[in-house]
From TrEMBL:
UniProt keyword annotation of Calcium present: no
EC number(s) reported in the record: 2.7.13.3
Enzyme class at the top of the EC tree: transferase
Keywords: Cell membrane, Kinase, Membrane, Transferase, Transmembrane, Transmembrane helix, Two-component regulatory system
Protein name in the entry: histidine kinase
Superkingdom of the source species: Bacteria
Annotated GO biological process: cellular response to phosphate starvation
A Gene Ontology molecular function term of the record: phosphoprotein phosphatase activity
Annotated source species: Ruminococcus flavefaciens
Keyword Phosphoprotein: no
Subcellular location: Cell membrane
Domain Histidine kinase: 126-333
Pfam families: HATPase_c (PF02518)
Length: 338
């Protein structure tokens, strides 16, 4: 708090004090009080005014400067009242009590919304598990009809299954730390599982999958990594170029401080303007509008899960040539020691 601002805020008080002093001098003159006594009274009045304002300024400045400093250093600003001591001046006490009441009300409202959100998330998870049973039954029925119509049914059911997985993982992504287990995971096995799950769709697209250097292990959660790679593969199989054989190349590189997993396809690519925003929630971009209906959630969930797992993911692309995603897995001996 600056002295200039404090004095500006107290202008009304100084105005009243000046009027009071003027009236006092007027009465002293009317009663023919000696000039020395009048001067003494004015000096005492001025000293009292200076002392009172100085004490008030420094008392408030200490509290408000402390509050501002702690606010700047706090990540969660709503906890400011927990960091402050109740001041010894009235307006500060009123403000402090208001902070406490407002924070209590906010916590109650947040708790109510959190309970509602938790209930909804549990319902979504239960619904996804329930819907997977009829989807699996329909996939088996479609598999038993080895004609062209059965293959089309199989493709659409695989897409439905992928979208239900997407809903489930999105519902869990905000609390992923409760559901994942970080352990040494073989990339070769994980990629093989993803390729097996997307086998029918890849065959229908005529796509081929090439791998290189996958004999490495990384510290991650295998189930979540399978979902991440599954989303990348689903996008690659969705955005293919007509007349060009789709090729998906998955390779790994072992560096001193991390392992890089590269996922590259030769599909439609991503235009340069869209590339910085592909991990944003609900962003569909040019491809989502041109080639297929897209929710813009797949890559958002992928980025969110990578962040939760402690991995980084980046993308590079050239329109109508290729798209490449790179996932970096840090090497951390702590997990191995545990």
């Amino acid at each position: 708090m600056r002295l200039r601002d404090y004095l500006k805020d107290r202008l009304w008080f100084f105005l009243i004090a000046a009027i009071s002093l003027g009236l006092m001098l007027l009465f002293l003159t009317a009663f023919r009080v000696s000039g020395q006594l009048t001067a003494t009274i004015c000096v005492i009045f001025g000293l009292f005014l200076i002392a009172e304002e100085t004490a008030g300024f420094f008392r408030k400045k200490r509290f408000y400067d402390d509050m501002q400093g702690k606010l700047d250093g706090l990540d969660k600003k709503y906890l400011i009242h927990e960091m402050l001591k109740r001041p010894d001046f009235l307006d500060g006490q009123i403000m402090y009590d208001g902070f406490c009441i407002a924070n209590k009300s906010m916590c109650e409202n947040v708790s109510a919304y959190k309970r509602t959100a938790d209930d909804f998330r549990e319902f979504i998870e239960m619904w996804v598990h329930e819907i997977k049973l009829p989807v699996a039954s329909l996939q088996l029925m479609a598999h038993n009809h080895c004609d062209e119509l059965g293959e089309k049914f199989q493709e659409q059911l695989s897409r439905i299954d992928g979208y239900t997985d997407q809903v489930l993982y999105y519902a869990r992504s905000e609390n992923a730390e409760k559901d994942y287990i970080i352990k040494e995971t073989a990339l070769k096995r994980t990629v093989a599982n993803v390729a097996m799950k997307n086998r029918e769709t890849a065959q229908l697209c005529g796509a081929s999958i090439e791998t290189e250097g996958l004999g490495l292990s990384v510290m991650t959660d295998g189930k979540w990594l399978e979902f991440i790679l599954g989303q990348l593969m689903a996008n690659s199989l969705k955005y293919t170029v007509e007349g060009r054989e789709p090729v998906i190349r998955i390779s790994a590189e072992d560096l001193p401080d991390r392992v890089l997993l590269r996922f590259r396809d030769n599909g439609t690519g991503i235009c340069e303007a869209d590339l910085p925003r592909i991990f944003e929630k609900s962003f569909t971009g040019e491809n989502g509008r041109t080639y297929a209906k897209s929710t813009g959630m797949g890559l958002y969930i992928v980025k969110n899960l990578c962040d939760r797992l402690g991995h980084s993911i980046t993308a590079a692309s050239e329109k109508d040539k290729y798209t490449e995603f790179t996932i970096a897995f840090a090497k951390n001996k702590f997990y191995k020691m545990v």
